[in-house]
Amino acid sequence: MAFIAPNSELLNCESDEKLNKTFQPIINFSSKEDKEINDNLHENSYNIVEIKEYITTRNLHLSKVISREKRAAVLICLFQGLEGEIRVILTKRSMKLSTHPGEVALPGGKMDEEDLDDSATALREAKEEIGLKSSLVQVITNLEPFMSLHLLTVVPVVGLLSRIEEFQPLLNADEVDAIFDVPFDIFLKEENHRRVEKEWGRWKYVCHIFEYETSKKGVFQIGGLTASILIHAASVIYQEPPSFSEYLPDFSQLQLTLNMN
Question: Quick check: 30 and 50 in contact, CB under 8 A?
Fold first, then answer.
């Protein structure tokens, strides 16, 4: 479930002027003292302690009884771009992998016996896959778990990389072919987004796909479970719903009405 580039490529802060709407996150990378003297910060932004309390309160129903054999974690590693925007680190899975080769993913994988918790799993996998040292990442909290098509419970772990200049990517060639980053708010915007309706057994669902072009690595397609996790995470961080419909229409109430008539 793995989800090289020189450091200059990692900070690929390209112009995103075509993404018209500006979303304001409820986190920032400044200290509380910096926030008090920075007139440019959004009036609704919070410090790290406040966002952690907010999300933790929101996720009291997070299950803690799922067995390790069926549990995995991914790291949503956020950092501040050159223009002050929040960006998220993504990878392209190795073509050598037996499952989902070449797909875009978040760093992460299955929980090991020695992992203390989901955060430990996500940080360990990020270190193994892309050389990201745990000491550089400040974990904020975990989001609600997602269920993969392989019936794994996947827990998104949100972390902040405040010193991006200290991150020197070192890719595990057996698991990762490339590393890149994108503006976090693209997962709330209609631009470069499309929906594909799929079926899993009798269950119909929407697969979201985002296309993002980098200056040196070409176009990446971000879809599947990774896209769903990032849509939800961006909705929490920016306190805004996506500009597109996230789920298929629910006609159950209409069908019930028709049956009653």
Answer: no
